[in-house]
Amino acid sequence: MSAAEGPLVVGVDTSTQSTKALVVDAATGQVVASGQAPHTVSAGAGRESDPRQWWDALCEALRRCGDAAHEAAAVSVGGQQHGLVTLDERGEPVRPALLWNDVRSAPQARRLVEELGGPKAWAERTGSVPGASFTVTKWAWLAEHEPESVRATKAVRLPHDYLTERLTGQGTTDRGDASGTGWWASGTETYDAETLAHVGLDPALLPRVVRPGEVAGTVRDSHDLPFSKGTLVAPGTGDNAAAALGLGLRPGTPVLSLGTSGTVYAVSRRRPADPTGTVAGFADAHGDWLPLACTLNCTLAVDRVAALLGLDREAVEPGGSVTLLPYLDGERTPNLPHASGLLHGLRHDTTAGQLLQAAYDGAVHALLGALDLVLDEDADRSTPLLLIGGGARGTAWQQTVRRLSGRPVQVPEARELVALGAAAQAAGLLTGEDPAAVARRWNTAAGPVLDAVDRDQETLERITGVLSDASPLLERGTQTTPRA
């Protein structure tokens, strides 16, 4: 038995490229053990993964946690949002999951917005205007391109739902992850019958939406994991909602997350509905709302630019007037799904380090442009911006966010905030507490605060100008018309 003060819980983060598991002392928040295992993602036009890899990775991650995982009294799974998991009558994947960053459904997204009342109607109904990331557009793409897969589908799940169901044997989801599908109505907090009928999706194929604080189920007998039968399973949630729990986030505190994707979000008491589509009106995992803006190109795109230049990712240099929009995977904010990277203002005296800094600037510009839309009008603009995710400890990322935001920046010392948020959700089942209050008790947001510096308005305006002038080119992207 471990020397923990309280019961142990397990928090899981099944992300785009790996699954991580933390065994956490519910009393203190101390991480007792951890493990991680990778997944693969397809290359080419789409972004797909076999969901069975996620289960295998979870098994391996927990194996690496050792004996501590056997003692857990509750478990919760946080996961990448939006992914479309289609299962057959045996619960096996019909095909690989279509991931959040698969933008092949951009044409279907445009059609759905037009066919169901336009952007304002979508925002009022679901809280968001769906783009190619949203699950409803992926289902529409599948119906158009692989009707045989649709006919074989007997259950539709999100990534975190898939793992939770393999633990419990029951099909469940939560309001936070459901709000990113495009078929969950934020006003009524139910599945939207009109949307489902329009895309030909039987609501009987969807999981039950578990309420915050409700037990989703218990671990069943037939599994390969080191949990006792009857171990409590929490609802789980999407990765951003889990990270918000992991920070113990209060309304009005902004978060900027630097990962494969970049996100900026804040908890709000008000149900968001942005008809421009810049802000997604997601629900959070404990009864409030999580208005959020997301970019497809963040740390991986900047690292790719560094690799092309033969530079270390920290080898930035100031100065110059070059602009680089690192839209290597298309882009979601701004909504340019067919865009590619764009370089403007190159001179003989431009250095490789300045090019790399321009990639950082281009990535951060899109996120900061959405920050004011994410925050409530009465939010305190002097509140430090919480910087999290894989890039948060990089000096170049920190300094770029400081310079372009003009805000103080706080870097929490706690790592793996998605898994910590899932662990806090699991702990809440045992203690009856709000999971965000559990995380605040664990002091997960503690970390150094970098003072505000003068905002680099000149760079922001230059990038905005290039983006505006190049919009027709970016919207056309790299698609070409074949020669006769």
UniProtKB/TrEMBL annotation:
Q: What are the EC numbers?
A: 2.7.1.17
Q: Which PROSITE patterns match?
A: FGGY_KINASES_1 (PS00933), FGGY_KINASES_2 (PS00445)
One family name in Pfam for this protein? FGGY_C
Q: Does the keyword ATP-binding apply?
A: yes
Q: Which GO terms describe its molecular function?
A: kinase activity
What start and end residues bound the annotated signal peptide?
none
Top enzyme category: transferase
Q: Which InterPro entries does its entry note?
A: ATPase_NBD, Carb_kinase_FGGY, Carb_kinase_FGGY_CS, FGGY_C, FGGY_Carb_Kinase, FGGY_N, Xylulokinase
Q: What does this protein do?
A: Catalyzes the phosphorylation of D-xylulose to D-xylulose 5-phosphate.
Q: What is this protein called?
A: Xylulose kinase
Task: Give the gene that encodes this protein.
Answer: xylB
